[in-house]
Amino acid sequence: MKKWLLAAGLGLAMVTSAQAADKIAIVNMGNLFQQVAQKTGVSNTLENEFKGRAAELQKMETDLQSKMQRLQSMKAGSDRTKLEKDVMSQRQTFAQKSAGF
């Protein structure tokens, strides 16, 4: 009886491993290339759409950095306070635009 159960168990184990080896995948290359082309088109569209905004934010960032350097080298005075206010307003604008980006 034990031999029958052992033989049946081994037989089931061999059948399941043999079934797993029979699975074959078929790839439709035409469909695959079409989907890849669509995705690259979407990525190009998104890149073109956000390119202007990204360039504007980079320009604002470099402008703010140069103003901060000028501000650090300036002594106290009316020009410095005016530049500080300008830098603060530009920082707020930059933060709003970058959050929306």
UniProtKB/TrEMBL annotation:
Signal peptide: which range, if any? 1-20
| UniProt keyword terms in alphabetical order | Signal
Region annotation (Disordered) maps to 72-101
One Gene Ontology term of the biological-process aspect is: protein stabilization
Gene Ontology cellular-component terms listed: cytosol
Q: Name one GO molecular function term.
A: unfolded protein binding
* Residue spans crossing the bilayer: none
Report if keyword Cell cycle is assigned.
Answer: no
Q: Where is the composition biased (Polar residues)?
A: 89-101
The record's listing under Gene3D superfamilies reads: Skp domain
* Name listed for the protein in its UniProt record: Chaperone protein Skp
Organism (species)? Salmonella enterica I
